[in-house]
Amino acid sequence: MGKELCLRLQVLDTPGSSHSSLEHEEVKHRIKKALSQQFPGGLHMALLVLRADIPFCEEDNQYTVKLAEELLGPTWNDFTTVIFTHGDKLSETCMKEDEYLMSAPKKLLTLLEKVHKKYIFRDPSDKSLQKERAILTSQMFDYVKNNKYQSLHFD
User: CA angle, 85 as apex, 93 and 62 as ends, to 5°?
Assistant: First the structure.
């Protein structure tokens, strides 16, 4: 549209939130507060990070999906992309991404359907960090663009 667009990445990591010693409501409160502080203009994309090299742990991941839905609201799935880390481990076993997904548990496939099949396999093999970052950024920007640059606002 005649304008130069720039993608500014901001990250709020919530490691091990399902394994926190805090009560569920306290975890939600702290993350929600951090989201509204870090993203006052809204959030264009949330990344749900899963490891491709270990079996899909339904209990942990269902907690994370439920938490995302509670924090981001009913349209969470429009603003969420799944990132599969350790994609290089699939390459080592000569498994392609589509083969991985064909053998994936039904719960994982359901999750991918919920997020409108927005997923990225992170495969750092044979790439410099800068090149990998450019590839991931491009893919994320495409998802944001396909979502018409909408952002999710927090109460």
Answer: 110
The helix (run of H) or strand (run of E) holding residue 112 is helix 106-114
- Find all residues with CB under 8 Å of 48, minimum gap 6, and list them: 64, 65, 68, 80, 81, 82, 83, 111, 115
Q: In a 3-state reduction of DSSP, which class is residue 133?
A: helix
What structural domains and CATH numbers belong to the chain?
Answer: 43-146 (3.40.50.300)
Please report, in tens digits, the pLDDT of each residue of the chain (155 residues total): 555 566 667 777 776 666 668 788 888 888 888 888 988 888 889 888 888 887 777 666 777 788 888 888 899 999 999 998 888 888 788 888 888 898 888 888 999 999 999 999 887 776 778 888 888 888 888 998 898 888 888 76
**Going by C-beta distance under 8 Å and a sequence separation of 6 or more, which residues neighbour residue 132?**
122, 123, 124
46-51 and 119-121 as β-strands: parallel, antiparallel, unpaired? unpaired
Query: What is the spatial distance between Cα 60 and Cα 104, in angstroms, rounded to a whole number?
Result: 16
C-alpha–C-alpha distance, residues 18 and 93, integer Å:
30
Is pTM beyond 0.85? Reply is no
